[in-house]
Write a structure and sequence with these properties.
The protein is an alpha/beta fold and 427 residues long. It contains 18 helices and 14 strands. The strands form two sheets. Strands 3-2-1-4-5-6-7 form a seven-stranded parallel sheet, sandwiched between helices. The chain is globular. The two termini are 33 Å apart.
């Protein structure tokens, strides 16, 4: 109780900085200055009928939620679904994926973790249940749900040892929040053990919902179109790269890669597209941008993937991929999308955010691990130049992705008692 009081006091002390932070981020993404009232629990519209609320912080969580959103809507045809986010890119991704389901599915920002803003949010929407994707945990939000009797579950939950150490430092503040969740569906046994040590109860291992995402036919078709634009050249994809990774990659690529290899470079965050384009230009490599929507010229060395929502197409067009976020101490990205379309991958040494899935992909023969970017580039070139190895790794990736499906159904089963009890209370 005392720690939560101090935690709330810190929020109040930080209040003057919130506007500054939004303004700072708006320099790159003006959308941060839109819908500001929602971040304090003020919403201009409401939703009719019983409501399921699902929180997906940003792009990755929103995309991962797609199978669950469809499954919940199918299982509860009387309900609407509210998605909440913390970033404009998460909200834009929801509009892209679920736009055709409006007004049954709508997106807003989750308020900051002030008790009064949380209370206003819960009073306005009155969700039947709340579902948190992955590991976004806000103590006052959990307490607000407890006070209003709103069941709150965490699903597709993953927790690296590094994140667990951070939560342990928060002491009883984190333990109480985890303990008051109504249900938790963990991705792996290891995630479950770490969550349990932090006070989580009512926990099941349900698997990773991302395995249940089916590559959209439209994006596979677009991948074929990309291949036609590229022509017969070998293609190396650098997928979801992060700050600090592109510079060394471009240097290594310029030194080691022959002209018949095209680097397709796709930064993780869209607000960095122009910054990365400038890096490519400064490196002396010839650049084209996906957004120009033109054929890739024979002398182009780097094709910048400055588009949103097309990662499956990039993977489908690539001969092999380097997974971003794993070359600096950033935790990596998951290789599931690449494996699902049969693209061999190379991951770097820093995959602590996706440790289990990366290790499983390596064990399955769908991925290889490198010590650093130079090593990773060398492994990628070996795969590109070895059609037998490339084909075997692609087939292993597809089998790996197929063999881990089913988490969505297990997650819906986990949530069903909460829905049933909530429905009974409303009568």
């Amino acid at each position: 109780m005392i720690l939560r009081f101090l935690y709330t006091a810190l929020w109040y002390l930080a209040t003057p900085l919130i506007g500054l932070r939004l303004a700072w981020r708006a320099r790159r993404q003006p959308e941060y200055l839109q819908h500001v009232g929602e971040r304090f629990g003020r919403y201009p519209t409401s939703m009719a009928g019983p409501l399921i609320w699902l929180h997906a912080v940003s792009v990755g969580e929103t995309r991962a939620s797609a199978p669950l959103v469809h499954a919940l809507l199918d299982a509860h045809p009387d309900c609407s679904l509210l998605l909440t986010h913390m970033t404009p890119t998460g909200r834009a991704t929801a509009a892209e994926i679920f736009g055709e389901l409006a007004p049954r599915v709508q997106s807003v920002y989750l308020p900051y973790d002030f008790p009064w803003a949380v209370a206003r949010f819960l009073r306005h929407f009155r969700p039947r249940i709340g579902v948190l994707m992955e590991t976004e945990l806000w103590p006052n939000l959990v307490e607000g749900c407890r006070r209003t009797g709103t069941p709150l579950a965490m699903v597709n939950a993953r927790l690296s040892e590094r994140s667990a150490r951070g939560y342990r430092r928060a002491g009883s503040l984190a333990r109480d929040a985890f303990a008051h969740l109504s249900a938790i569906g963990a991705q792996t046994d290891a995630d479950g053990r770490r969550l349990s040590t932090l006070g989580a109860r009512l926990l099941e291992v349900t698997g990773n919902i991302k395995f249940d995402i089916t590559p959209p036919e439209a994006l596979l078709t677009l991948g074929n179109e990309f291949r036609n634009r590229i022509g017969p050249r070998q293609t190396l994809l650098a997928a979801s790269t992060r700050e600090g990774e592109e510079g060394p990659l471009l240097e290594a690529f310029a030194r080691h890669c022959p002209p018949e290899v095209l680097l397709v470079l796709v930064p993780r965050h869209p607000q960095r597209f122009d910054e990365v384009a400038r890096l490519v230009s400064r490196s002396g490599l010839k650049l084209q941008r996906r957004s120009a929507d033109t054929p890739v010229m024979a002398d182009t060395q780097v094709w910048l993937g400055d588009s949103m929502g097309e990662m499956y197409a990039y993977y489908a067009a690539a001969d092999t991929a380097l997974i971003g976020g794993s070359w600096e101490k950033l935790g990596g990205q998951n290789p599931i999308e690449a494996s699902a379309v049969g693209c061999p991958v190379v991951v770097g040494p820093h995959t602590f955010n996706f440790k289990a899935v990366c290790e499983q992909a390596i064990e399955a023969g769908a991925a290889q691990r490198a010590d650093n970017l130079e090593h990773g580039l060398g492994l990628a070139l070996e795969i590109i130049n070895n059609p037998v190895q490339r084909k075997a790794m692609g087939a292993a990736g597809r089998n790996f992705a197929r063999s881990h499906r089913g988490a969505t159904a297990r997650t819906v089963a986990l949530l069903e008692p909460l829905m049933h009890n909530a429905r009974a209370r409303k009568r």
